[in-house]
Design goal:
With 461 residues, this protein is mainly alpha-helical. Helix content is 73%, strand content 0%.
Length: 461
């Protein structure tokens, strides 16, 4: 059986796909280098400018709360109008908010501008991840997500170092630098990410299966949700914990850098593992490791030990992020990647906002409470995901279906099942509800976005 696709809708072969991934990764690096420069000292900076501990939590949470409001609708919109407009628009919003943050210093202004930063940065993250999930063949997707997240963490490694060097007195200039980085990050997107939607001409069902009825996607969303609790707690409490233990501002900045560098180094090896091993078990291992570290940190009193263990934890996180993102993008049709990524990111940012808001007040009561609560939530989430994924494969069926036909290895795959896999209707993905496949003409499906065209499999093997 020969599966055909319309080459006019492809991105011109493997080199073009690599250029798109490189452009998105470079953009991610530049954006986060600027954003991370202000992040480690922001809670302390807010305290020095009149915010209470509780208000620090609310301000940090405003970033994520604003992102929740825009990520799902704009992720879904990017499926229709293309990723580029959403990416560039989000970067501009982030830049403007950062400039205002540097000009106006007040608790209320900080709250508003942090929210605008969240709205801009949130939609960029969704569109970047959706771009990778859409264009990269399934058997290389782990490494592509590794490159994306690794680029982000290299930026996160560089930014806090300079933020710590400039200290609290130079924070205003760090906000201006963050704005400049956001604008520079738009350049590779403008030059190399295609405009418009890839799915013009594809028959998209008017009524799509809800994501909550897709066990594979739902499990990934729960993993994103649990990760949000962890992120929100660290956003508010990590710097406060180090400050409580007597750390200097440069040591706080260094702790973020030493977390980011091991993550960046491990990103490509972790992606390689994701492309070859069961994504479910990699997700469980990564989440369990993070939960254990979170439970341990508040009982340590040595700044050096806290910083060192944070660097070790980065290794487990580097494995979990590409595993979860690869599983999510493999769970839906190519024309639904933005919607799925928007839903997962909204869940993550919502839980991050809740955790960041509550953690400040809980830390004021007892520094151990937020760490222990988040650790418990992570272990509960592992159990929930294991139930959802108990019948879900940890390796995508699309690759197996297509390559079995290429090599003449007849394993019972039919044209209908291959077409269903190509458009992501849930073959082997633990779908619940109606079992009616969506009919999409194979000639118009950009199969490389759903796992690679057969010619591309042959080229990249």
């Amino acid at each position: 059986m020969i599966l055909r696709h319309d080459r006019t809708r492809s991105y011109g072969g493997t080199p073009e796909v690599r250029r798109i991934v490189a452009a998105v990764s470079i953009s991610e690096f530049v954006e986060w280098a600027g954003a991370a420069a202000v992040l480690p000292l922001m809670p302390v900076y807010l305290r020095h400018h009149g915010s209470s501990v509780a208000l620090v939590g609310f301000t940090m949470a405003a970033f994520f709360a604003a992102a929740v409001l825009v990520q799902y609708p704009l992720g879904r919109l990017s499926d229709r109008i293309g990723r580029k407009k959403v990416q560039i628009g989000g970067l501009i919003v982030y830049a403007v908010a950062s400039i205002l943050f540097g000009l106006i210093v007040s608790p209320v202004g900080a709250f508003v501008f942090r929210a605008l930063q969240g709205a801009g940065g949130g939609v960029v993250d969704v569109a970047n991840a959706a771009t990778v999930g859409e264009v990269v063949p399934e058997q290389y997707r782990g490494r592509a997500f590794g490159a994306l997240f690794g680029s982000r963490t290299v930026g996160m490694a560089i930014g806090p170092f300079f933020g710590g060097l400039f200290g609290l007195g130079g924070m205003e200039w760090m906000f201006f630098a963050a704005a400049a980085c956001a604008l520079f990050a738009a350049v590779p997107i403008k030059l190399f990410v295609p405009s418009g939607s890839r799915h013009a001409g594809v028959t998209i069902p008017a009524k799509r299966t809800p994501l909550w009825r897709n066990n594979s996607a739902l499990g990934a969303i729960v993993a994103f949700l649990a990760g949000g609790f962890l992120i929100g707690m660290y956003e508010t409490c990590w710097s406060l914990l180090l400050n409580l233990r007597g750390a200097q501002t440069w040591e706080i900045g260094l702790s973020w850098t030493l977390f980011a560098f091991p993550f960046a180094v491990m990103s490509m090896p972790a992606g390689w593992l994701v492309d070859r091993l069961d994504r479910r078990y990699l997700t469980y291992i990564a989440m369990a490791g993070s939960a254990a570290f979170a439970a341990l940190y508040p009982f340590l009193h040595s700044v050096a030990l806290l910083v060192a263990l944070g660097a070790v934890e980065a290794i487990t996180v580097a494995i979990g992020q590409p595993a979860e993102s690869s599983q999510l993008s493999q769970s839906v049709a190519p024309y639904d990647v933005g919607r799925a990524q928007g839903a997962a990111s909204s869940a993550q940012t919502a839980s991050t906002a809740v955790a960041a808001t509550a953690s400040g007040a809980l830390f004021g009561i007892d520094p151990r409470i937020p760490f222990l609560l988040v650790s418990a939530a992570m272990f509960v989430a592992i159990g929930v995901i294991a139930l959802l994924w108990r019948t879900v494969p940890g390796r995508g069926p699309i690759l197996a279906l297509l390559t079995s036909e290429v090599h003449g290895d007849r394993t019972g795959a039919t044209a209908d099942s291959a077409a269903g896999a190509a458009v992501g209707v849930g073959v082997g993905m633990g779908m619940r509800g109606e079992g009616t496949p969506v009919t999409v003409p194979l000639e118009t499906v950009p199969l490389e976005g759903a796992g690679g065209s057969i010619p591309r499999f042959e080229q990249m093997r």
